[in-house]
Design brief:
Shape: globular
Number of domains: 3
Order of helices and strands: HHHHHHHEEEEHEHEHEHHEHEHEH
Helix content: 25-40%
Oligomer: single chain
Strand content: 5-15%
Bound molecules: flavin-adenine dinucleotide
């Protein structure tokens, strides 16, 4: 069902926004429309799957970066699920060859080839516009300056753009809710289940404490302001998919990257704790992983030049401080269904100002490494 929806919805993402009724006609599947666009996802999951583990694995796509539960009437879980299952028209997840740096290098090359001038280390302080001409005030280590522009395309979060424009954000972004843990390993850990080779176990998504009931219990605990007693998480080993992420020497020695995405870790759990809650959350998250392993993950970690283990944990508050993500929300704001309505504009990138456009995750149909908001902002500028 989701594959059919993916095939039909994905091509619409780089066109002008369809209306809700138009998208329903494009989906052309009453059952799928009701399951994904109208009723809380939990209803569809429970009517189709009976096993607690299978239900949970399906639900995780609805909870990435989204602090919610299966029966949330706001349907934010449905929107998160939808974007996770329609990518490329198949729902398949991809890893950029060479890592994310290769993607930004390719963007840089394309921009330079098109005669763009790229200025890094420029913090934007404010954006002023009269709808036709705009001014962007910035600060660098050498001082402040102003750039004049016909149009401003902003990939900061909508709440940040509102602040730069001197406006109140329409609604504050919901808090981020993930603990991200990045690791470099000397070797993949052996599993307690000897029947599964580590390379196979970590080749896809490795789910930990993510059954349907465990996800629900963790959400309830976190919503009450407590660290989940059994934090759900999932792990990806990108270097198994693309060994070029590591240098040839490390790859040859059997090193691997592991990245863990922990769910139900809202920003509120970390406020005012001065890093203590981060350490507690990290310990609590690694415990159920270690329970699946024959050797603790700590024994497999590589050591850096100072002899310290190569592991870093990032809370929503860390992402807010390091990257300016409001509340540490990885999608910049709640994801939207991919259709238009009152005030959404033609492309889903428009703001109250004709020449100021969103070109990042906060646009309608944004929220991931897709390039879609950038494409759509360009179309809007070109007057399509
Ligand atoms: C932990 C985590 C895991 C994720 N996993 C995935 C995934 O597996 N797949 C996927 O598709 N997406 C994933 N995402 C989401 C994806 O990373 C984002 O959707 C994407 O990076 C958004 O790109 P963007 O260019 O819109 O915004 P950002 O990447 O947030 O870039 C905005 C930039 O603006 C800068 N900025 C902010 N304020 C100012 C200012 N005043 N002046 C100048 N610069 C400023 C910030 O420093 C930042 O560099 C993940 C995100 C996180 C945080």
């Amino acid at each position: 069902m989701t594959r059919r929806v993916a095939r039909r919805v994905f091509p619409t993402l780089t066109g002008p926004l369809p209306s809700r009724a138009e998208l329903e006609r494009i989906v052309d599947d009453k059952e799928a429309w009701e399951a994904l666009f109208e009723h809380p996802l939990g209803t569809a999951i429970e009517s189709r799957f009976s096993h607690d583990l299978v239900r949970g694995v399906v639900l995780t796509d609805a909870l990435i970066g989204t602090f919610t539960h299966a029966h949330d009437q706001s349907l934010r879980q449905n929107r998160c699920f939808l974007y996770h299952v329609i990518g490329n028209g198949t729902g398949e997840w991809n890893v950029p060859l060479g890592g994310m740096g290769a993607l930004t290098d390719a963007l840089t090359d394309a921009a330079l080839a098109a005669c763009a001038e790229i200025l890094v280390g420029h913090e934007v302080l404010s954006v002023a516009t009269d709808g036709t001409a705009a001014e962007v005030r910035y600060r660098t280590v050498r001082g402040e300056g102003v750039l004049a522009a016909g149009s401003v395309l902003a990939n900061v979060a909508p709440a940040t753009l509102a602040r730069l424009l001197g406006e109140e954000p329409e609604q504050p972004a919901p808090e981020g809710a993930q603990l991200k843990v990045n690791m470099l390993l000397r070797r993949l850990p052996r599993l307690r289940d000897r029947a599964v080779a580590p390379r196979n176990a970590f080749a896809g998504t490795f789910h930990i404490a993510e059954s349907y009931s465990q996800l629900d219990a963790a959400y309830r605990e976190a919503a009450e302001g407590r660290l989940p007693s059994l934090p759900p998480s999932e792990i990806y080993c990108h270097s198994l998919t693309d060994p070029s992420i590591l240098g040839p020497e490390l790859a040859e020695r059997g090193y691997h990257t592991l990245t863990l995405f922990g769910l139900h870790m809202p920003a509120r759990l970390f406020e005012g704790t001065d890093g203590v809650a981060r350490e507690e959350a990290l310990r609590a998250t690694m415990a159920p992983l270690d329970a699946c392993l024959e050797e603790p993950i700590a024994d497999c970690l590589a050591l850096d030049a100072d002899g310290l283990p190569c592991i870093e944990a990032r809370t929503p508050l860390d992402l807010e401080a390091d990257l300016g993500l409001p509340g540490g929300n990885i999608f910049h704001r709640d994801l939207s269904f991919p259709y238009g309505g009152e005030g959404t504009g033609r492309w889903g990138v428009e703001t109250a100002h004709r020449n100021v456009l969103l070109c990042g995750a906060g646009a309608i149909r944004g929220g991931g490494v897709s390039g879609i908001p950038g494409h759509n902002a360009a179309m809007a500028v070109l007057g399509h």
